[in-house]
């Protein structure tokens, strides 16, 4: 016999469902008696052996606990029954609300709200117009990579001079003052500034050029400060605090300077970099091959992104917030547990996450939404257009990318789907430099 006396399903949106359910009195009574017996078996009451406490006493002593468990059991079992018989697959925990006071002596009616994976129907996938990037590189990029390798092979000497030049590594102690207060936690002993690097801010270079050992340099620096929280506040996906703009004064006391000595770009440099190189031409050829592979990968990923974005823009829809948040938290985890943080302690990682949450979470949330919409669109079009996978590609993905069979087949189908859509699209190609070389 069904526990559900009656129910109705309201589709609040593509991903929201609301059930109005009435559970019959017979089921409630049965569940009530089952709970009483369960509690009786384990109840510990002075003067009675385990399992021998009278039922009337159990009902009186554990009245509140029994009612709470009874409500939860009745609600959960009836929702599961309705979802199973109506092919509904919740992706979030149901939030229920009684429509009347609960009693084990009468029918019980409640509403329950939860999110489901939406059924997406993609109709606009032909004759798309979008722009793709063609990454380019030339001899100057090879020279740029050679310069980077040259810097890695550089040596440092202590110069006879005391004035700083643009070829120096400057070492000193850094203090940070914000709101007229020095921040002890941001002090750095032995902080290094590479004057010869293009990514070192020009304002810092300008402030240091010509200065000497023991000089103190004060530099103004504008930055974004995360919202100040109460000590009991937890940083989670609900945080939506606006960052604050601040001006910091950086007090940098110069303790020493090292002059960089760069090796000549010649056959000896190639041999020093690796035994597999006999001369500079072989090193350049390897760099060229690496850039070509980099270009191929970037072209592929950028085209896939541009095409997918065009599909989303032309078939936009709402996605369940619970799934977006779930994916976003996975992305955050990937962002903070990478090569850059492997040497940090758990406390340092948590502090980094706290201080940068206002930047990390919006980025992760945006990426998660894009990823979820992409997958739903792919799934619909693969089924609609009967897209098949390529067995050779699947085998390579399993071997090289360590995917399981299901993941590899889906990835292959997505690639074949995008190739089909690309053939029927209007694409504008824009060239872009493969390497960002800075100043």
Notes on the protein architecture:
- By secondary structure, the protein is α+β, with helices and mostly antiparallel strands.
- The chain is 44% helix and 22% strand.
- Strands 6, 7, 8, 9, 10 and 11 form a six-stranded antiparallel sheet that branches. It has a four-stranded antiparallel sheet with strand order 1-2-4-3.
- Helix 1 packs across helix 3 and helix 8 packs across helix 9.
- The longest helix is centred in the C-terminal third of the chain and has 39 residues.
- 14% of the residues are buried.
List keywords for this structure.
alpha+beta, 11 helices
List the helices and strands and how they pair.
Elements: E1 4-11, E2 16-23, H1 25-42, H2 55-61, H3 63-85, E3 95-98, E4 108-115, E5 129-136, H4 139-152, E6 155-157, E7 168-178, E8 181-182, E9 188-194, H5 202-208, E10 216-225, E11 244-261, H6 267-273, H7 280-314, H8 321-336, H9 346-384, H10 391-400, H11 405-423, E12 426-433
Parallel strand pairs: 5-12
Antiparallel strand pairs: 1-2, 2-4, 3-4, 6-11, 7-8, 7-9, 7-11, 10-11
Structure described in brief:
The protein is 44% helix and 22% strand. It is α+β, with helices and mostly antiparallel strands and 439 residues long. Mean pLDDT is 89; it is low at 227-235.
């Amino acid at each position: 016999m069904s526990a559900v006396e009656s129910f109705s399903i309201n589709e609040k949106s593509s991903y929201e469902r609301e059930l109005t359910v009435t559970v019959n009195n017979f089921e409630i009574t049965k569940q009530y008696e089952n709970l009483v017996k369960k509690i009786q078996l384990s109840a510990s009451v002075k003067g009675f052996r385990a399992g021998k406490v009278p039922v009337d006493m159990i009902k009186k002593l554990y009245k509140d606990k029994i009612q709470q468990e009874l409500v939860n059991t009745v609600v959960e079992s009836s929702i599961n029954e309705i979802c199973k018989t109506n092919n509904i697959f919740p992706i979030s925990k149901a939030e229920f609300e009684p429509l009347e006071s609960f009693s084990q002596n009468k029918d019980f009616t409640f509403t329950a709200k939860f999110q489901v994976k939406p059924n997406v129907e993609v109709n606009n996938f032909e004759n798309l117009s979008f722009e793709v990037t063609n990454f380019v590189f030339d001899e100057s990029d090879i020279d740029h990579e050679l310069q980077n390798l040259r810097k890695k092979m550089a040596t440092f000497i202590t110069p006879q001079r005391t004035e700083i030049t643009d070829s120096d590594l400057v070492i000193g102690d850094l203090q940070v003052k914000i709101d007229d207060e020095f921040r002890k936690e941001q002090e750095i002993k032995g902080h290094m500034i590479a004057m010869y690097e293009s990514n070192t801010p020009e304002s810092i270079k300008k402030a240091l050029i010509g200065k000497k050992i023991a000089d103190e340099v004060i530099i103004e620096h504008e930055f974004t400060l995360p919202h100040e929280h109460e000590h009991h506040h937890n940083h989670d996906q609900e945080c939506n605090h606006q960052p604050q703009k601040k001006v910091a004064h950086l007090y940098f006391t110069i303790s020493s300077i090292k002059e960089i000595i760069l090796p000549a770009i010649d056959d000896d440099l190639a041999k020093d970099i690796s035994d597999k190189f006999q001369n500079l031409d072989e090193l350049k050829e390897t760099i060229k091959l690496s850039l070509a592979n980099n270009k191929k990968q970037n072209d592929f990923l950028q085209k896939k992104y541009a095409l997918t974005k065009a599909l989303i823009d032309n078939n936009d829809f709402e996605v369940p917030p619970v799934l977006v948040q779930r994916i976003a938290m996975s992305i955050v985890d990937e962002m903070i547990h990478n090569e850059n943080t492997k040497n940090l302690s758990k406390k340092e990682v948590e502090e980094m996450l706290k201080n940068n949450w206002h930047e990390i979470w919006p980025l992760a949330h945006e990426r998660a939404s894009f990823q979820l919409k992409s997958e739903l669109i792919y799934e619909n079009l693969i089924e609609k257009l009967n897209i098949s996978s390529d067995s050779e590609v699947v085998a390579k993905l399993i071997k090289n990318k360590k995917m399981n069979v299901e993941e590899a087949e889906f990835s292959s189908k997505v690639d074949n789907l995008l190739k089909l859509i690309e053939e029927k699209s209007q694409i504008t190609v824009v060239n872009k430099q493969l390497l960002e070389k800075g100043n």
